[in-house]
Design goal:
By secondary structure, the chain is mainly α. Helices cover about 65% and strands about 10% of the residues. It is built from four helices and three strands, in the order H-E-H-H-E-E-H.
């Protein structure tokens, strides 16, 4: 299977699962209180930790422009896609799912609420997937760094 097909398959599966869960939270009473973590529906009008919520109505368009810019970059630099195709599929799935929420619900549908020991921001599955994609990119960058360092040492 080609890298584009794998990335597209990852994108479709993650996007559909995330949207199905968000639909359930937005249209049903799925709130559950737990001792460590709760499921509680919240609409985030900003980005991480509700930053930039003052841009509320414009944020979805700004984010779409960023997606288009990244797509153009990837089109002009196909070697980047080939190297990070799994991470790109994950980040795009989570990011575009959250952007769709802004158009559909007026804000991102968040529902995981950690409150044991400390209170943490409310987040969703797409946020976790985006974080996973970023971790994969950082890991790959670290591997490249180690290889380049090893090559420099051999040349010295």
């Amino acid at each position: 299977m080609s890298k584009i097909k794998i990335s597209l398959l990852i994108f479709i599966i993650i996007f559909l699962v995330d949207q199905a869960v968000k639909f359930g939270f937005a249209n049903n009473d799925w709130n559950v209180e737990g001792p460590v973590m709760s499921l509680h529906l919240v609409y985030n009008k900003g980005v991480a930790f509700s930053m930039f919520s003052f841009l509320q109505e414009y944020l979805k368009y700004i984010q779409l422009l960023l997606v288009v810019a990244v797509l153009i970059y990837l089109y002009k630099n196909p070697e980047v896609f080939k190297q990070y195709y799994i991470a790109i599929g994950l980040v795009f799935a989570g990011g575009l799912s959250n952007i769709l929420d802004r158009f559909t619900y007026g804000g991102v549908v968040d529902y995981f609420y950690w409150h044991y020991g400390f209170e943490f921001a409310i987040f969703n599955f797409a946020d976790v997937i985006i974080d996973l994609g970023v971790v994969l990119i950082l890991y790959k960058q670290y591997q490249i760094y180690k290889e380049e360092k090893k090559e420099k040492e051999l040349k010295s």
